[in-house]
Amino acid sequence: MSVDQQHALLTAARRLAGEFTGTFGTETIERFLHTSYDQFAAHSTIPNYLPLLAERFARQRLHALARLEGHRDGRPIVLFMCVHNAGRSQMAMGFFRHLAGDRARAWSGGSEFATEINPAAVASMAERGIDISKEFPKPWTEEIVRAADVVVTMGCGDACPVYPGKRYLDWELDDPAGRSLEDVRPIRDEIERRVRDLLDELEVPAT
Asked: What pTM value is reported for the model?
């Protein structure tokens, strides 16, 4: 880890400490931040972005842990999971956030997360006015899965975690990896249909 990266992580830790004041102490925040950094360091080909990715993922993990410890706001959380977190789950999360607004929350993760999002997935979503270009593939962690109300799996099979008592949905969808934009469009449209149905089930109005 370079000196610049160390400085960036210290800055990130201070930001997270300010956001989670009264909820988590410095030790917990730094532990989540550094373990998140280590997970991305093993995969990333762009070291300069590692502190930013680590901070964003640590923030999500801390929100999940806070929810498990009773800090709930009443909004349902859906976790979308596939193998690489580069196509299907990212498109599903994009649609969910776009349609649900702040009335529900969506996360995503992969069992073997990739280094970047599928460009065809990004382009197909842009055609619908949804920008997922700033998202990034990420793993799942125990607290994230446990904090979700619904876990939607897409092709990760036995690699997806299963916790007793949690609601699971398995969506059989073609993998957009290696496909052209034209071939990804039908997958995108089917994902939108299923996300809209899920929002109806959760009684979350879609915009």
From this structure: 0.90
